[in-house]
Design goal:
Elements lengths: L2 E6 L6 E6 L12 E3 L2 E6 L2 E2 L2 E8 L6 E6 L4 E6 L6 E8 L6 E9 L2 E10 L2
Parallel strand pairs: 5-11
Antiparallel strand pairs: 1-2, 3-4, 4-6, 6-9, 7-8, 7-10, 10-11
Length: about 120
């Protein structure tokens, strides 16, 4: 699958554009990660103003979510209080971010639970 992301000024100001291959496959797909009995997924990975983070965990513990740009600079860091075991759903409104590609990482108890590349479109 081929994904192309570029930036140009065709609309009068610099915009980030995205093009997928011509096979009809989705532009961005999600692969849930499973680490130490924890399932992790982010929906949608191509978004305009918000996304949902869903995870399940066997034990109660706090977690951290970090949103970074493609250069690895942290943009947002969220730290939860203790979260109970079971399936959790987090919603986050991030409409103020500029359009671009970001990497969302979730950590708990010193381990990376999962990460996902996400694309913010205008």
């Amino acid at each position: 699958m081929l994904h192309i992301i570029w930036k140009d000024g065709r609309a009068g100001n610099d915009e980030i554009y995205y093009k997928r291959n011509l096979t009809g496959n989705p532009a961005v797909y999600e692969v849930p990660g499973y680490v130490s009995g924890i399932a992790f997924s982010v929906k949608p990975t191509l978004f305009t103003d918000g996304l949902s983070i869903e995870f399940s965990r066997p034990l109660a513990a706090p977690f951290w979510i970090t949103l970074q740009d493609v250069l690895g600079r942290p943009i947002i860091r969220y730290e939860s209080g203790p979260v109970s075991a079971g399936v959790q759903l987090c919603g986050n409104r991030i409409a103020t971010l500029p359009a671009g590609v970001y990497i969302l990482t979730m950590e708990s108890q010193g381990k990376t639970i999962g990460y996902c590349k996400i694309v913010k479109v205008k």
